[in-house]
Amino acid sequence: MRNWTNRTTYLAAALSLAGCASGPMAPDRTFRDTGKPLSVTTRGNGMQDMGGPWFVRGYFPGDGGLAMVTLLPDLRGQEAVEFRTEACLLSGDCETDTEIWLARPLGQNRWQLNREGAAPRQMWVVWVDDDFRTAAIGTPDGSYGWILDRRPEGGADRLRAAAEILNFNGYDTSRIKVR
Q: Domain Lipocalin/cytosolic fatty-acid binding spans what residues (predicted)?
């Protein structure tokens, strides 16, 4: 039988060292010039078109453990967003964790995310390609930004386009990590 106390301690230490302990959407950081306006795409029908799983293909420091973002158009009658994080220890043991945030629409392709015990956050779809394969996600306060894709690999041209859109919207894309 494994020693779960030590395993949890090691996992917490690994997450802390990796910069992931703050979790997705940590409020104490910013990656964009908030003096620039943040655009939102008018493409599509919000959660209905964006719904489903998205692989995190580009992220800023601190979100390296964030693996997937799933938009849920109808979770018990409410829109929601699920965040899946993954962390692996040097031993090869890996842990997966999910958080669900309720999503209140603020307008087309914009939501306020709420989770008990956490400060509310906004999530904006800054850009999405015509076929809803790749998206640039941001927030007015610049505390996070992601490039999401429906597939875990490929689409280099769309990933570049998403990064360019984030840059145009004030993000310091020299700090973005692309998978």
A: 116-178
DSSP annotation of 75 = E
Domain span at residue 155 reads 4-178
SS3 105: strand
| CA–CA separation, 2 and 166 (whole Å) | 44
19-76 pLDDT tens trace? 343 455 555 689 999 999 999 999 999 999 999 999 999 999 999 999 999 999 999 9
pLDDT in tens, 83-125: 999 998 888 899 999 999 999 999 999 999 999 999 999 999 9
> Residue 55 belongs to a domain with what CATH number?
2.40.128.20
Q: Which two tokens stand for residue 72?
A: 């849920």
In the chain, the number of structural domains is: 1
- Those residues with Cβ within 8 angstroms of residue 99's Cβ, 6 or more apart along the chain or in another chain: 23, 24, 82, 83, 85, 115
CB 132 within 8 A of CB 50: yes
* DSSP letters spanning 10-54: HHHHHHHHHT-TT-TT-TT---B-TTS-------S-THHHH-EEE
Query: What's the CA gap between 102 and 27, in Å, rounded?
Result: 18
